[in-house]
Amino acid sequence: MNWLEQYDPRIALLAALVGVSIALINSRFISRVNEEQGPRRLLWMSMLGLLAGVTVWAVQTLVVLGFRWTDPADGSPMAFGYDPSSVIFSLGVSAAIMSVAFRLDPSGRPEAWRALVRGGTLGLTAVGVNIAVLLSLDVQGQVILDPLLVGANLVLAPMLFGLAALFNAGPMRWRHPRLGRSILGLAIPGAIAIAIASVSLAPDPDVELPKGLMQPAPLGFLVMAVCAIVTAATFAFAMIGDSLKQEAENRYQHLALHDPLTGLPNRAFLMTALEDALTGARDGASPGLAVIGVDLDRFKPVNDVHGHAAGDALLCGIARAAEPLLEPGELFARTGGDEFIALKPGATEEEALDFARRLARATSAPVEFQGSALSVGASFGVALFPRDGQEAETLLSRMDLALYRAKEEAGDAIRLYDRRMDEAQRDRSALAMELRAALDSDAFELHYQPQTLLSDGAVTGYEALIRWRHPTRGLLGPDAFIGVAERTGLIRDIGTWVLHAACREAAGWDPSLRIAVNVSPRQLSQSDFVEQVGDALIASGLAPERLEIELTEASMIEDHAQLRAVMAALKTLGVRVAMDDYGAGYASLAALRNFPFDKIKIDREFIETLGSDPQSTAIVRSTLMLGRALGIPVLAEGVTTEAGRRILEAEGCREGQGFLFGRPVPAAELAGRAAIDADRPGPVSGPIAAPVAERGSIAAPGTDPGPDAAARPAAAPDSAELTSAPSGSGRGGAARNSA
Question: Which of 605, 637, 655, 721 is the catalytic position?
Fold first, then answer.
C-alpha cells in the first residue's frame, strides 16, 4: 500500500520531536552523570535508563498511532483499538531493559564496549517496542510487517544508537558530544521512517474486535502524560540532587574550615582570613592588624583528673564564652589542642590588649561538667602589623615568641612582641646547635646525689643528674639547656646517653645500691623506649632491680594506655618505677590510682617548709599514710636540716634525699669522699654517705651555682642549689635533668 496515504505525517513529526527532545535531555544528563561517583552515579544511571526506556516506548507508540488504518480498496475507515495491558507491558519492559543497560557502567570509568552495548540495547529496544505495540493492535484485518525493512531496522538502529552513545558517554578519546547528538538526531527519525514503511494491512471484515480496547486519542494522551511525568521527575531528581550536592559541598567546606569540636574557625580559615586582613591593611582599608596567640594554662591536669570528655567540654565552653565577646571583624580560631589564634583588623596596641583581655575573660570562665566547675587560664602573645612584621609568616612567628615569653611567666599573662625576644630566640637556636655538638663531642657528664635511710644515713642509692661542660660557660646544670633540648627533640638522644652512662657507672658499685634516672615525656612516647632500657641493662650488666625510672607528672603522657603498657613492660624487665615530685601537680592522686608505681618521692616544696607550715606538714603526713596504705615506699626530697629529718623519721618516712646527706658529685669523687667520711662520726654505706655530725654543715648559699637542679619558676635567691636540685619541683617538667 502507499504508506504516505495511510499515515498521518503530523504524528510522525510529533514522535520525532518527542524522541529527539527527550534524547537530548538524556544526553545532557549523561554528561552530568560523568561527574558523579559511587551510589549517586548508580542512581543517576538508573534514572536515565528509565527515562530512555520511556522515550523509546513513547516514540514507538506514537509511530503506531500515526497509522490511519483504512481499507486499501475503498479508503473507508476500519474499526481498531489497542490492548491496554499489552501497551503497559511494553512500557514496563522498555523501561526495565534500558535501566539495566544504563547500569552497565556504574564505576565512573566508561569503556567503549560498554557505551556501544548501552546504545545498541537502546536501538534494539526501540525496534522491539515498535513490534510489541503493533502486536497490541486489534483491527478488522491483518497487520503485515515487511521482514526486509524490519531486519534493516534491527541492524541499523543498534549501530546508530551505539555510535551516538559512544560519542556522548564513551571514553575521553571517543568523546564528541556534538557528533553523538547529531547521529542521535538522525537515528530516531530514520528508525521511525523505516518502522512506518515496514507496515501494511490486509482487511478482513469477518474479524471481531474484543471489548475494552483503547482508542488512539486516549492512548496518545497517556503517552504524552507519561513522557511529561517522567521528564519532570528527572528534572526534579536533578534539582534535588543539585541541592543535596550543594548542601554537602557547603557542609564539607564548613568542616574543612571549622573545628569539628568547638565549631570555631580552624587554621585553614585563619590563614585565609589573615591574608585578607593583611591585604586590607596594606591597601589602607583597615590600617593595623593584631595577631594574638592564646595557649591555655593548666589544661592538661583537667584531662588527667577528669578525663578527655571534660577537656572537650572545657574547650567548647571557652568557644561559647568567647563568641558574644567578639566585636565585628574579630576572629577567634582554634588551631589545635589547647591553642587558639585571634585576629583583629585595624587594631592599635591598646585595642589589641583590650581584645586579649576580653579573650582572657572567656578562657577563665568556669565551665560546668558533671557537677564540677572546670576552670583554666591562658597566656597571650600579641604581634602587630606593620610594627612587628609585614607578612603572615613573620607575624605568626613573632606572635609565637611573645606567647612563649608569656608562658614562661606565672600564667594568665599578656605579652607584646619586642625585638629582644628575637635575640632570645637566636640564643636558643645557637644553644640547640651547641647541644648537638656536645652530643658528638661527649661533653656531658653525670653527677650523683645520694638517697639515704633517715634512721642512720646509710646510702641506699643515687640519683643521676646531668651536667654539660660548656667550652666557654663552664659546668652547666640542666636548667640551662634541658628546655631547649625538649623543644628541639634532642632530649631523646640526651636521655638515651644518660640511661646508658648511669647504668654503666652503677654496675661497678656495691650490688645493694640503686641508680635512679628521670625520663622525659618525649622518651616515654618513643615506641622503643623499653627496648632502650633493656639495651642499657644488657650493655652495662646492671641488674634490672637496681635501676629505678623516675616519672614526674609532666611525664604522664596523654596516652595513658601507652604509659601503662610501658610501665608494665619495665616491671616485666624487673625495673622499678617511682613517681617523682609527688604533690607538685594536679593529678598526683589520679596517677597513683591509675599507674603501678614502686615508690613515691614527696616534692621538695613541702619538705622545705616542714614544721613551719601546717599545710605542708599535713600533706607530708597524709602522703606517708597513703604510702603505707598502698604498700608503696616513700622518699622525701630536699631534706636540708636535721630538724626536718627528725620530723620525717618520726612520721614514719624511711628514706630521704637532699643537701643534708650530700651534694651531687661526679662519679670520680664518690670514692674519695667516702674515704674522708669514713673518718667522721656516723654510719657510712656505699661509695658515699654524709656523716651525721656534718648534716647541718651545708655550704654557704650561692657558693655552688646549683647545676644539679631543674629550672624552677620561682627559685628563692638565697637557695639556688636547693631550688634547682634534681629532686625539685616537677613544674619544670622534665627540665630537672636529661632523663
Answer: 637
